[in-house]
Amino acid sequence: MSIPKIQKAIVFDKNGGELQYKEIPVPQPEPNEILINVKYSGVCHTDLHAWKGDWPLATKLPLVGGHEGAGVVVAKGANVTNFEIGDYAGIKWLNASCLHCEFCLKGAESNCKEAVLSGYTHDGSFQQYATANAIHAAKIKPHADLAQIAPILCAGITVYKALKTSEAKPGEWVAITGAGGGLGSLAIQYARAMGLRVIGIDAGEPKKKLVGELGAEGFVDFTKSADLVKDVVTATNGGPHAVIHCAVAEKAVTQSTEYVRSTGTIVLVGLPHDAYVKSEIFSHVVKSINIKGSYVGSRLDTAEAIDFFERGLVKSNIKIVGLSDLPKVYQLMEKGEIVGRYVLDLSK
Ligand code: 8ID
Ligand code: ZN
């Protein structure tokens, strides 16, 4: 396979700076890495946070963002035994971890202190050729639809793991905030496949329509509801047993401490900057509610989340645009106008 020396990428030199569509060198894989010819990459809201630099964790600079990359292995380092040239592979947020700390050993690799993050501390999938640690790279079966599977590599894994973290049982209610966005639209489908009843919370008719089509039994528009807590409690006959927060909003979390059912679990996934959880302690205790954080997923969560996709239980609601359109995608995302997920075609 002939690998070019230069390639197209979107790069920024400083957080919030110009998103430059330009040619950069193709990276060389390290001994434990594969080089993937990225065909499609999803655009996650995390990529927008990384570009803006609004989290209390510094990004690499200059940086190539992106961590939902699906493509073909074109080269591999000397130590790689689990991928062959020509295999399909996926770039995930968790590019690498130490594999021997307490957290890696117990399957919590995302909590590893040495975690390497695609599109954040390691150049990601907004380039035509990207490197990934072979142990962590996602396995994708031949003939998979690479545009469709791209969003599974972060959004899918993350919401699947969050639903497991909620410990909600089949037949129970789960509320999903940000239900019409990238993570939320997949969360509805994983929840349905896991036997849960879903109420979606988001804004506007296009998102309401999608949320309903994906199998949610109820929708509350957070921009229109006069009493959101009451509306959610009524729609779920006493409050949801679990809440998965895909919204990028502190207020959504505060409200959920009021509407979650007694003994229920709130799972924090969305990462608004400078935000805090506010839960009134008396009710928190008397209702015995749980609030947990959930951060992407392990290699096992990855394989399981992809298996749901391969069995046709979840599909991505994507709009495909070219790599050079990334700045426009960020503008729409900032305004909350994206229904589902945008996927970049790296050939354009
Ligand atoms: O591992 C993790 N925890 C993880 C993994 C991947 C992504 C966390 N994230 C984080 C991202 O960094 C981001 O903060 O999850 C958040 C959502 O990512 P996304 O799904 O990629 O974003 P989106 O497509 O823009 O969807 C967000 C939705 O939230 C709605 C918006 O209308 C949009 O549809 N929303 C907002 I903003 N405020 C809301 C509110 N108050 C709300 N929905 C309900 N109530
Ligand atoms: Zn992501």
Provide structural commentary.
A hairpin with an 8-residue loop joins strand 1 and strand 2. Strands 3, 4, 5, 8, 9, 16 and 17 form a seven-stranded mixed sheet that branches. The chain is globular. It contains eleven helices and 17 strands. The model has no long low-confidence stretch (mean pLDDT about 100). Helices cover about 25% and strands about 25% of the residues. Helix 4 crosses helix 10 and helix 7 packs across helix 8. It has about 350 residues and is of the alpha/beta class. Bound molecules: nicotinamide-8-iodo-adenine-dinucleotide and zinc ion.
Would you kindly provide a brief summary of this structure?
This protein has 348 residues and is of the alpha/beta class. The protein has helices at residues 45-52, 102-105, 146-149, 155-166, 182-193, 205-213, 228-235, 250-259, 281-286, 299-310, 326-334, and strands at 6-11, 20-25, 33-42, 69-76, 88-91, 94-96, 116-117, 129-133, 138-140, 173-177, 197-202, 218-221, 242-245, 265-268, 290-293, 318-322, 341-345. It starts with 5 loop residues before the first strand and ends with a strand.
